[in-house]
Design a protein that fits this description.
Blueprint (H helix, E strand, L loop, with lengths): L2 H29 L9 H23 L5 H18 L5
Length: 91
């Protein structure tokens, strides 16, 4: 596998985490007006992307392959909980 193929595989592997990391803060600003949280938009995206990448890597390690629906379910759950914590929604 060449470097171009490797980078394309890595980008496709991380695409679900990147899409959710961008979508969650945007949708939270629209749906939950007045709960901006302490962090700005970009730090929220960065934290959520790291959380999502860790979940995807854990799913790859646990199942031995990428693309399992259980991994994607865990990705959504962990990133939603991360967004909830970043917004300090327990207050």
């Amino acid at each position: 596998m060449g470097p171009l193929d490797l980078s394309l595989h890595l980008l496709n592997f991380l695409a679900p985490a990147a899409a959710l990391a961008v979508a969650l803060p945007l949708l939270a600003r629209v749906a939950l007006r007045g709960t901006a949280g302490r962090l700005g938009w970009w730090p929220q995206v960065a934290v959520l992307f790291v959380l999502g990448a860790m979940v995807l890597a854990g799913g790859l390690w646990w199942f031995g392959r990428d693309g399992k629906m259980a991994t994607y379910g865990a990705l959504v759950a962990v990133m939603a909980c991360g967004q909830w914590a970043l917004l300090r929604a327990w207050r």
